[in-house]
Here is the input.
Amino acid sequence: MTFETLGLSEQLLRATAEMGYTEPTPIQAKSIPAVLKGGDILAAAQTGTGKTASFVLPILHRLSDKPAVKNNQVRALVLTPTRELAAQIQQSVVDYGKHLNLRSTVVFGGVKINPQMMKLRGGVDVLVATPGRLLDLYRQNAVKFDQVETLVLDEADRMLDMGFINDIKKILAALPKQRQNLLFSATFSNDIRRLAGGLLHDPLEINVAPKNTAAETVEQKVYPVDKARKAELLSHLIRTEGWHQALVFSRTKHGANKLVKLLDRDDIRAAAIHGNKSQSQRTKALADFKRGKVQVLVATDIASRGIDIDQLPQVVNFDLPNVPEDYVHRIGRTGRAGNEGRAISLVSADEISLLHDIERVINSNIERQEIEDFEPNHTLPASRPPGSGRGRQGQNRPPRKNGAQQKPWSGSKSGGGRSANGGGGGRNSNGASRNTSGANRNTGGASRTGGGRGTSGNTHDAENFGNR
Here is the structure.
C-alpha cells in the first residue's frame, strides 16, 4: 500500500514524498480513509507509529477546499496534554501542509498570551492547543468555536491522568454539536471508554497494537544494581559503550538535577528537562540534545510522550516508574518508525515489585543481566548478615555478595566488565550513532503553510506541567 492509494490530494502526496515517506504505517492506513469519510474514530496506537500523520493528513485534505476562515474562528481543533507534543503536532501540520494555503497555530501555557491572541485574530484552519491555555483564550473571546468541524483528542489517556478532564468537558460544551470527533489513546482504559461513550457517535474502533505492549524493535534489558551505584553504572555504560545520545528517566525533579551533576563530574555532557526548569532552559536542553551538544537528557515522566527524536538509540530507566504503563511510554521514545532501539532499566532491590508490575502489564519477562564489577548486594537491611559492611553510600562499593545470600534475580553476567552485551573487554559501539537532525522547529504563532512559506517563531520544547 502507498499513500497514493489512500485518496489524499496531490499537494499532500508531494509533501509526504519530500519528507521521505512512501508507505503508510498501519495506523495511517486504517485511519486516513476513515477520517476522509468524516466519521468518528476511537484509535489506540503505540507511540512512534505515525499517529500524528494519521489525523493531520486527512484533516488538511478536507480543509483544503474550504473558504477562508472567519476572524478568531477555528475549523480543526487538536487538543493535547503537553506543550512539547503540541509543538510537534503543529510542526507536522506545517510540514505536511506546506503546499496548501492554510493557516495554523499552536497555543499553550508557560509563555505570554498576547502574541497568541494576535495570531488568532485572523482565524486559523488548524489550532493545536493544551486545554488550560485554550480555555483562557476562549474566556477572553480570543478564539471562537462556531466553525469547528473536527475535534481531535490526542493522548487522551494522558490528559485524563494529568487532571484535564474538567477543562476538556468545558471545551466540549462550547463546541458545535455537529462535528467529527477523533480520539487517540495509548490504551483503551475504562476511563477512556467512558469518555468516548459521551463524545463519539458510532465510532470506528482502530487498535493497531495489543494493549500496553512495547515496540518489537526495542531491545529491553534489566541491569540489577545497588541504588547507591546507579549513577556510577550509568556513567560506566555511557563511556564504555560509546553512547552519544541517551534519554534517561528519573522519577523526581531533584533526582534529575542530581544525576546531571554526577554525570558532569565524569565529563559527560548532560542536561535536565522537568517542571522546575524555565521555558528557555527546557528549550535549550532539548535543542542541544537533538544537535548532539548534550549526550544525555535526563527527564521526568511528564516528558515521556512529548519528546520525539529521530533514531534515538537508547532510553534508560534510571528509576522505574510508579505507574507501570508509563514504562511503555518511556521506552516508546526509541525504536520508532521501524528503527531499532534499546531500553535499559537500572533496577535496585527496592524496585523489584515495580519491575514485576511492569512485566505483568507488558505480559513479558525482561531479560536480567548483571554487569561485572557492579553486581548488586540485594540483601534487605533487616536481614543483612552481621559484619557485611554497608560502606558509605555513594562512595565505597558495597561488598560482593557471597554464595549464601539469595538474590531475587535471574540472568547472566556480561563478560570482561566492559560491555553490557558480553564478549569480553571490547568496547561496544551500539547506540553510538549521533542524531544530527537538528533542533525541533516550531511556529510560535500562526503560520501559513501555503506554497512552502516556512515557519516563524521560537522553538517550544517542554511539556505542560499543570500550569496551563
About this structure: The radius of gyration is 23 Å. The longest helix spans residues 83-96. The chain has two domains: 3-211+441-452, 218-378+408-413. The CA atoms of residues 24 and 121 lie 36 Å apart.
